[in-house]
Design a protein that fits this description.
The structure holds 3 protein chains of 3 kinds. Chain A is of the alpha/beta class. Chain A has 2 domains: 20-158 and 324-376, Periplasmic binding protein-like II (D-Maltodextrin-Binding Protein, domain 2, 3-Layer(aba) Sandwich); 162-321 and 407-439, Periplasmic binding protein-like II (D-Maltodextrin-Binding Protein, domain 2), CATH 3.40.190.10. Chain A has 20 helices and 14 strands. Chain A has helices spanning 14-23, 26-29, 60-74, 88-97, 112-117, 128-132, 139-142, 167-172, 182-195, 212-221, 241-257, 272-277, 289-297, 337-347, 350-358, 368-375, 380-388, 401-406, 409-419, 424-439, and strands at residues 48-54, 77-83, 104-108, 146-147, 150-151, 153-159, 162-166, 227-230, 233-236, 283-286, 306-309, 321-322, 324-330, 392-393. In chain A, helix 1 (14-23) runs antiparallel to helix 16 (368-375), helix 10 packs across helix 11 (241-257) and helix 11 (241-257) packs across helix 19 (409-419). Chain B has 2 domains: 12-80, no CATH class; 85-296, MetI-like fold (Orthogonal Bundle), CATH 1.10.3720. In chain B, helix 8 (165-189) runs antiparallel to helix 11. The model of chain B is unreliable at 1-31 and 293-304 (pLDDT under 50). Chain C is mainly alpha-helical. Chain C has one domain (48-307): MetI-like (MetI-like fold), CATH 1.10.3720.10. Residues 1-18 of chain C have low confidence and may be disordered. In chain C, helix 6 packs across helix 8 (172-199). The chains are: A alpha/beta, B mainly alpha, C mainly alpha. Chains in contact: A-B, A-C, B-C. Chains A and B meet through strand 2, helix 4, helix 12 and helix 13 of A and helix 7 and helix 12 of B.
Chain lengths: 442, 304, 312
């Protein structure tokens, strides 16, 4: 999914994250001298605003709420189009090229830069202050949306991955507390595996080989990096000995606790929420939104059956996670920029953020103020994700990074390692070659 | 574009019906055994060749617990229509059906109308440049779909046609019109000149000859090429995928290819049920042409 | 692929001036539309191939002419050459497979009872009529790791070892194998039925005569049947070459050109260059080259068409 630059290394407390984020908050990131203009309050009776939302990001109810407020304010209608992740780069790029592009788009935080750099998105810098509505945005969302000091995306929400496990299944196997170390985790999974021997195709922890963001957690935990930048030149680092250790750890864990078939698969095919819901696995690694999806797929599962915890790393800390997130972008070719700004402003507003984006959808809100406000009301399930977010990492902040996700080379790296079709060394060397080429293209 | 067009020539279907229960009419001693072998091979071949279709239908009627097994179930033990219900409700089947219907029927009607006149010109008249036009028509229908996609997308996006029904329709017309002209021309050629000349003797104008004499006679050709055009446009994936970004504008193939659960996961039962729904009209059409052409088609002037 | 016999008398065009204008107005509607949606884009394609049209151009309209730079970089790009080699070899494999099986099935049809022939024909029509988007999805399901029926079946054969969890799209050879099966599966019906139609036209007496001379069945097939089928076979082969060279959907939907671009044929290479990387100028250059190669194939086709008696 989406990735961010919040590089809160080490186990910090929530408060520390807040403090860190505040240092480079949205208020002073803008250097263009803009940021003072107010979002227009143009009425839009009879007009229709087209909004693209990614599947799995916001719930229908949240979008409906934003629309309701928007329509009440402007009189304009909203045409919401839900988009699939597969082939999204092609979809968005082709759509932005037309004379009637979607007005507002839900963009992954790492995607924003490449569209912005190519002139596809509206410069939001002049309205920055008004759009922030007194909040301090998470840098992990606002920074990747900032190119040459100009803001092109409005922070929407953040999310982190944690282990979602079936408490009931684990309890039956004699595990009652969530593990806090890697050894505890593997010991627990061994118990769960033993207790479920009779279930065919059972995986104690379903971790498909192509789930590269899970794989990266192992690499980061071992101290490896995808790529590092020096003097504007990227050098891919999977061949590095630490990264190699991480890949080996990933393979060991994957092969031990996930089904054989899963070694080359991605999370969608077969759908891992379904596998969890069907009881064919007792744990998956995913974001908050998936808790609801699991419950939807199997209505018999209740909140009390589900637990979450950050993935404990071999390093002794929790594994670093990619703090995914989403920004609202406005098409440069949009004919309704005034309305689009108003819509996005509502979506980013403190009330929608706290009541809907966090309150209803369970995402991490877009601002440090939002996180602070949420802290006291966190449910047990939410805590796993918020805690996981405390140790987070980013993918390379290159506009070209999207290409490596787009052509699935990173998926193939991890599935080749998991399936053993390549050794970690040879898989890493072919990935590194491709990554060097792509990241340094231009 | 033949990449998306069905691999369809018409003569091949035209001929198996005739009473020529071929060669092996006389049962000489020599041929008795080979015939038995042939039938065995035919049975094995049929099973192998129909299997993917069978498996699609089989999966479509299975509950998930029977579909997702490492040891396959060869028939649904508890047949269910659940997958079809899912296919109907996932996204908006009827909307995509409507989109496909609008675009495909528009492209077919336009191609037939334009193609009918062009085919008449290219078959009933001799004029300079006719040969070159025929060659161009033959060549362009062989072009790879991806080659045309780039410029069509660029031009159409500049004039606001990308993402619209009209734009997609025009792209399909570009793909099927040359082919339609070619097919209908074959039918025109099969009409004896005497018919036309007789009408002319009675003082009919060129227009009257066309509309009163030739067009009615060429109706089977209109149907045949209409069906071809339908199949080609109905099956297109890549143009619609590139042109139609809004989910509410998807055509059936794009919907089918992106058919997933709400969690973006693949639901194979639903996918197979959706495939059945999508394939049904095409297979039915193939059966229809089969019958139509057996009787209606003169030894085909029609190539792929 | 029989021949349209045109009575030359039919085309005796009358010489009146009114009649000479008729083809013009009959052709112009189609002509204008084709100029707009087909000819103009082709010209545009060629023009684009000489520019640096990219993602930025899509949004801002700005681009520069780069001369033949796109072609130069194409011809020095090993990815392009690999893609071309792949396309040629894979096309050859697909054509060979479908022609051999198709010819066999065609002959098989001649040796069957009416009922059995009907059964086989219906089976063929089903395989033929399946839209390729649907058949590609079915294929992915047949070969799905862990749950695919083909994986199970191959495991039962005890020849290839445990295939249950093999991911076909994760291995270059297996990706090709499964796509090859898919293409051949859908190509055989056309070839078989077309050849069968031609085969039934062969006079039985000829075969009987050769048989009486003591020729084996294989001898009869070789000397008589294949000789008669030759023109049809040639046309079917050329058409298959053109079609298989252009195959896109099945590869895109089954393997997306992976793993590691192993199944990235020219069509896939063009699409990913133009619509994933959005290097549209470069993509246009690939298209132009692809099309030129195709033109050569088409010339063969048209020459044979004319030779077989088609009057253009």
């Amino acid at each position: 999914m989406r990735i961010s630059k919040i590089a809160a290394v080490g186990a910090l407390s929530l408060a520390a994250v807040v403090a860190l984020s505040a240092c480079s908050s949205s208020g002073n990131a803008g250097t263009s001298g803009g940021g003072t203009q107010s979002v227009p309050t143009t009425k839009g009776d009879g007009k229709t605003l087209k909004v693209w939302v990614m599947t799995g990001d916001y719930t229908d109810a949240t979008i409906a709420e934003i629309n309701k407020e928007f329509t009440a304010k402007t009189g304009a209608k909203v045409d919401v189009q839900i988009q699939q992740w597969d082939g999204i780069t092609t979809k968005i790029s082709t759509a932005l090229a037309t004379s009637t592009p979607p007005d507002v788009m839900d963009l992954g935080n790492t995607q924003v830069a490449s569209y912005a750099a190519n002139g596809a998105l509206l410069d939001l810098t002049p309205y920055k202050k008004d759009l922030a509505q007194g909040q301090t945005w998470l840098t992990g969302l606002s920074e990747p949306a900032t190119v040459d000091g100009k803001l092109y995306g409005l922070p929407g929400f953040a999310g982190a991955r944690a282990v979602i496990y079936n408490k009931t299944t684990w309890a039956k196997a004699g595990v009652t507390d969530a593990p806090t170390t890697y050894d505890e985790l593997t010991a627990d999974l061994d118990k769960v595996a033993a207790a479920n021997k009779s279930t065919s195709d059972f995986s104690p922890f379903y971790l498909p080989g192509q789930q590269w963001y899970a794989g990266m957690q192992f690499v980061w935990d071992a101290g490896g990096e995808i790529a590092t930048e020096k003097d504007g030149k990227w050098t891919a680092g999977l061949g590095d000995s630490k990264a190699q250790q991480g890949l080996a750890d990933f393979k060991e864990f994957q092969n031990a606790y996930s089904s054989k078939a899963s070694r080359t698969l991605d999370t969608d095919s077969p759908d891992f929420t379904q596998i969890f819901a069907d009881g064919k696995t007792s744990a998956i690694l995913s974001t908050n939104g998936y808790v609801d999806l699991v419950k939807k797929a199997n209505p018999k599962l209740k909140d009390s059956d589900i637990g979450t915890f950050p993935f404990p790393g071999k390093s002794g800390k929790t594994q670093p996670v990619m703090l995914g997130g989403s920004d609202w972008g406005i098409a440069a070719k949009s004919k309704n920029t005034d309305l689009a700004l108003q819509w996005a402003k509502i979506a980013a507003s403190p009330s929608v953020q706290s009541k809907w984006v966090y309150g209803n959808d369970g995402w991490i809100p877009n601002s440090t103020d939002g996180i602070k406000a949420a802290d006291s009301t966190l449910s047990d399930i939410d805590k796993g994700f918020f805690n996981a977010a405390l140790n987070s990492k980013a993918t390379p902040a290159s506009g070209e990074w999207a290409g490596l996700e787009g052509d699935k080379s990173i998926n193939q790296l991890f599935s080749a390692v998991a399936s053993g079709s390549k050794t970690p060394e040879s898989a890493a060397s072919s990935f590194d070659t491709a990554a060097d080429k792509t990241l340094n293209a231009k | 574009m033949t990449t998306t067009a069905p691999r369809l020539s018409t003569d091949e279907v035209s001929d198996h019906a005739p009473a020529s229960a071929p060669t092996a009419v006389k049962s000489t001693r020599r041929r008795k055994r080979p015939r038995w072998i042939s039938h065995t091979i035919a049975v094995v071949f049929s099973i192998v060749w129909i299997f993917p279709v069978y498996w699609m239908i089989n999966t479509a009627f299975k509950p998930r617990t029977e579909a997702m097994t490492s040891k396959p179930e060869f028939y649904p033990h508890h047949p269910t229509l659940h997958n079809f219900a899912v296919a109907f409700t996932q996204g908006d089947f009827l909307v995509y059906l409507r989109n496909s219907a609008i675009v495909v029927s528009g492209a077919v009607v336009l191609s037939i109308l334009l193609g009918l006149f062009a085919a008449a010109a290219l078959s009933r008249f001799r004029f300079r440049g006719r040969r070159s036009i025929m060659v161009v028509i033959l060549v362009v229908q062989m072009l790879p779909a991806t080659a045309l996609l780039i410029p069509q997308f660029l031009i159409f996006s500049q004039i606001g046609l990308v993402g619209t029904y009209v734009g997609l329709m025009l792209a399909y017309v570009a793909a099927v019109l040359p082919f339609t002209i070619w097919v209908m021309r074959g039918f025109f050629l099969a009409i004896p000149m005497e018919v036309e000349e007789a009408a002319r003797m009675d003082g009919a104008s060129t227009w009257q000859v066309l509309t009163r004499v030739l067009f009615p006679l060429v109706m089977p050709g209109v149907i045949a090429s209409g069906v071809f055009a339908f199949i080609a446009a109905w099956n297109d994936y890549i143009v619609a995928y590139t042109f139609m970004q809004d989910q509410s504008h998807y055509t059936l193939p794009v919907w089918l290819a992106s058919f997933t659960t709400q969690t973006s996961g693949t639901d194979f039962g639903g996918q197979m049920a959706a495939s059945v729904l999508f394939s049904l009209p095409v297979v039915v059409f193939f059966m229809i042409i089969q019958r139509n052409l057996v009787s209606g088609m003169s030894a085909g002037a029609v190539k792929g | 692929m029989a021949i349209s016999t045109v009575n030359p008398g039919l085309r005796r065009a009358a010489k009146g001036p009114r009649r000479n204008l008729a083809p013009l107005w009959l052709l112009s509607p189609a002509g204008i539309v084709l100029l707009a949606v087909l000819v103009a884009p082709i010209i545009y394609l060629v023009v684009t191939s000489f520019t640096d049209y990219d993602q930025r151009t899509l949004y801002t309209g700005a681009y520069d002419s780069v001369g033949i730079a796109n072609y130069l970089s194409l011809f020095t790009d090993p990815d392009f050459w690999w893609s071309l080699i792949r396309t040629v070899l894979f096309t050859a494999a697909m054509v060979a497979g479908s022609i051999v099986i198709g010819t066999g099935v065609s002959h098989l049809l001649t040796r069957l009872s009416t009922v059995m022939r009907y059964v086989v024909t219906i089976v063929l029509i089903f395989a033929w009529g399946m839209p390729n988007v649907a058949s590609s999805l079915v294929w992915k399901w047949l070969f799905q790791p862990g749950y695919g029926v083909m994986n199970w079946f191959l495991t039962q054969l005890h020849v290839f070892g445990d295939m249950t969890n093999v991911d076909w799209s994760n291995n270059a050879f297996l990706s090709y194998a499964s796509i090859w099966m898919l293409i051949v599966w859908q190509a055989v019906p056309f070839i078989a039925l077309t050849l069968y139609a031609a085969e039934t036209q062969i006079p039985t007496e000829l075969k009987e005569a050769v048989r009486l001379d003591g020729a084996s069945e294989w001898g009869v097939y070789k000397t008589i049947t294949l000789t008669f089928l030759k023109p049809t076979l040639l046309l079917v082969t050329i058409l298959s070459v053109i079609w298989d060279y252009n195959v896109f959907n099945q590869i895109w939907l089954v393997s997306q050109g992976g793993p590691d671009d192993a199944t990235s044929t020219l069509g896939v290479f063009t699409f990913t260059t133009a619509f994933v990387g959005f290097h549209l100028g470069q993509g246009a250059a690939i298209s132009v080259v692809t099309t030129l190669i195709l033109l050569i194939l088409t010339v063969f086709y048209i020459r044979n068409l004319i030779r077989s008696g088609e009057d253009l």
